[in-house]
Amino acid sequence: MKSLYYHSVESILSRKYFDHARIIAGKKGLQRQVKWVHVVEVISIKNLLNGNELILTTGLALKEESAFICLLEQLIESEAAALCVELDTNISAIPRSVMDMADLYDFPVIVFEREVPFVSITHDIHSVLINQQYEMMKKLDDFAQVLNKRLLTVNHTQEILNVLHKELEVPVIFQLKEQDPQFHPPMKRTEEIKMLNRYENHLGNPRGDFTSAKVILFDQEYAELFIYRDEHPFSEYEVLLLDRTSTALAQFLMRELYFNEKKRIEESKWIMSWLKGEQSNERLDTYLRGLKMNFHGGVVCVFSDSKEQEARDYTYFNLVARSIFEQQGFHALPEKDGDDLLFILLDTRKRSDWKKRIKTALEKIQKSHFLQNGKETIISIGKYQEEMMDIHLSFKTARESLLFRSIIKGQQRVFFFDDLHLYRLISIVNNNVNLWEMIEEYLNPIIEYDEENDGSLLLTLKVFLSCQGSKQETAKKLFIVRQTLYHRLKKIEELLGDDYMSSDKRLAIEFLLSAHDYLGPLKKGSRKSAVK
């Protein structure tokens, strides 16, 4: 591993003016970085330090032990690099309490046992640091040029990560939001597991052996780039390299977004005609062969939001969602239909677990930044189709599933058409029979009574039947006393007839109650079922 432009206390001690220097405390802190040198002969210096300074003193203001402790506390708090004291000029020894505190905080305390020219030390070290700064800026420019040239031909993020690894020779970790981290260079499985454990521990409890830079797209954090080393902290040069690389990654990802969006716009009319069932078999086969993938079926997923999303949010969400779906074995084709976002999910794996894989993907998507506050977002998934020509049926059933948001109570936000068992049966019957006539025949007396008297007989009947005729459980669910329930049930019997609980009539009433719930939103939208 390279250590670029990092001067530690230990490396400074090897320079010529430190031949007669001796470290007497804080030996574990020798890897602290030195960025500048100060000569100090006063106690109050906290506001004069920026961190990583090597402090030189003859001890003029440190004759009292309390003054020495006060100075050391300020140096530790300001994250200075180390303290160098010239002995026998103003003080002859370092107090034990000072050494104990230095050991406690791993803060190096160094003594000069002979007189040394502080002006020569500062000149020597400052010359090295200033020359290093010029050299560092030149190398940063060279590195940026290499990245810019690579960006002209790069096809994958790994190629950019390789440039950074080649320069620093440290492990590089790249993590897109809501996705697993990528390690570069590739490691053996055992090494990767160890690195992953260190990385996850760092995310929970940040440590100095990792440093990172965020990859920002559309003013949002899209990914994060990490480098790792456990020997000593990273230098300013290495952090700047990391920043340059994160910028290059952002440019590459932006380019990918642009081309994908351009391609999407070109394909938009074609995809919408596919979703409407207007594509020919020949054109569809030609398109699918061009994808060079084997598909076992497909399904349409619709994200419906009552609030219009900004274009930049859609682009970000599109990229995140596609990547998550692909992890679960679906090649995702995005599209917009009005204010709704939708994906044609072409299945590259076995059909048997398609629903489980989609649920896993949707859980990750719902945790993403795009949907964290998306309480208004409803997700519907249509009927799985084995034939690509039938994808329009999946789209129509996904649309139909959205109608149930007002029927199914609770906090449910995801609707699979395959899970709407009774409502699917109602949909099929409604295509062939006028269910409203039957609803009016069986339930109209109760509906009219509720409208005229602002009553709750229809709700009471639903709950009573769902509780299998248990009056105690019904009263509990409705939060009413039994006498009130008895009165309502007597009125229901008068309106429906005393045989409404007979098996055949009860089954018909339960079916028509569900049909009433189903047809309410359908009547408003005047939509026909797509189920065949």
TrEMBL record:
Name of the molecule in the record: PucR family transcriptional regulator ligand-binding domain-containing protein
Domain PucR C-terminal helix-turn-helix: 457-513
PANTHER family reported for this sequence: CARBOHYDRATE DIACID REGULATOR
Classification of source organism: Bacteria, Bacillati, Bacillota, Bacilli, Bacillales
InterPro entries reported in the protein's UniProt record: CdaR-like_regulators (IPR051448), PucR_C-HTH_dom (IPR025736), PucR_C-HTH_sf (IPR042070), PucR_dom (IPR012914)
Family annotation (Pfam families): HTH_30 (PF13556), PucR (PF07905)
Domain Purine catabolism PurC-like: 12-128
Protein source organism: Rossellomorea oryzaecorticis
